[in-house]
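Researcher: Here's the sequence for the chain we discussed earlier.
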Amino acid sequence: MVSALYPGSFDPVTRGHIDLVERALPLFDRLTVAVATNSSKAPLLPIEERIELLQAVLPKDSRLSVTTFSGLVVEFCKQQGIGAILRGVRTVSDFEYEYQMALTNRHLESRIETIFVMPSVQYSYVSSSLIKEIVRNGGDVSSFVPPLVEQRLQQKLRRPS
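Model: Thanks. This is the structure I predict for it:
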């Protein structure tokens, strides 16, 4: 049985994240989407809300679960019996960062592999940071995030007129 972990901040979850999950599900027996708690970042959405949004917008599949973790990804994988880390790579700069992380994780735990998946073309430039900036400035993000996510972002970020 091959289990994978898709870790991230998901602040907010985007259609790119959803696309990656949908395309990864056929590759694994089990896929866990895990919201990382990172004390060096100040997220817009509280962790509970990010989990709630993920559960609402991800495909309904018994092989898919959503959770949270803190600390090292490889330690969480070892604790959960997960053998692969799923990472999306949009750009060359993403690849450089992810490659460095993959090699570090392999050094820490050689039995856990990192699997890189390229995004679908229509999501290759979408990032959570970009989406938040668009909403802050009154732009339309409906093609980048599900309606529920857009609604939450507008509640938190829209400037009063």
